[in-house]
Each structure stands twice: as structure tokens, then as C-alpha cells.
Write a structure and sequence with these properties.
Layout (H helix, E strand, L loop, with lengths): L1 E6 L2 E4 L4 E9 L7 E6 L6 E6 L5 E3 L7 E6 L4 E6 L8 E7 L2 E2 L3 E6 L1
Parallel strand pairs: 2-11
Antiparallel strand pairs: 1-3, 3-8, 4-5, 4-9, 5-6, 7-8, 9-10, 9-11
């Protein structure tokens, strides 16, 4: 059993920043299999960023250079620093670990 709790979403103006957190508990072996997804209304859920063993990362082209994923193994927590936010970044952001999902956190970006 795995529990994922996201936080840090909110309303921000375009160009602003937010930092999302995902706290994991339960049968977590490593945060190096966690990722952030997002789903906007009427769209499919998409992978935004993921962290891999060894510290390597993946970013969707739409967020490269603006978003940074990082993790704290001691806290079983993964972060998503989002800078230079755009209206098209607005979505519900979800944390994922090996098929487990959190409840999501809403990010709204005003233009």
C-alpha cells in the first residue's frame, strides 16, 4: 500500500512560480521512480517530469527549462519547482509512484 499526498498548488499570475510537494508513505522503496503528471480539463493526463535512479530526470518539452523535479529520500518526498508559469500550465497535478496516484493539486495560472 502506498499513499501519496500532493500539496503546493494554487493560483498564480503568468510568469510566477509554485513549488509542488508529494509526500509518500507506505511501501516506498525509492523516490527514484516517482513522477509528476498533469491533466487539464478535456485533455489526457500527461507526464510532466520524472526522476530516475542515479538522479537522472525527464521533462516534457513543454516544461523544459522552467520546471525542476527533485527529491528527498530521507523524507520520501518529491518536489516540482515550477517557474515562469504560463496559462497553459494550468491543470491538476498528480504525483505517481509505480502506478499509485495521489489526489492531485490544482494549479491555476491567470494571464
Amino acid at each position: 500500500q502506498v499513499q501519496l499526498v500532493e500539496s503546493g498548488g494554487g493560483l498564480v499570475q503568468a510568469g510566477g512560480s509554485l513549488r509542488l510537494s508529494c509526500a509518500a508513505s507506505g511501501k516506498i522503496f525509492s523516490i527514484n521512480a516517482m513522477g509528476w503528471y498533469r491533466q487539464a480539463p478535456g485533455k489526457q493526463r500527461e507526464l510532466v517530469a520524472r526522476i530516475f535512479s542515479g538522479g537522472s530526470t525527464y521533462y516534457a518539452d513543454t516544461v523544459k527549462g522552467r520546471f525542476t523535479i527533485s527529491g528527498d529520500n530521507a523524507k520520501n518526498t518529491v518536489y516540482l519547482q515550477m517557474n515562469s508559469l504560463k496559462p497553459e500550465d494550468a491543470a491538476v497535478y498528480y504525483c505517481n509512484y509505480n502506478g499509485w496516484w495521489g489526489q492531485g493539486t490544482q494549479v491555476t495560472v491567470s494571464s
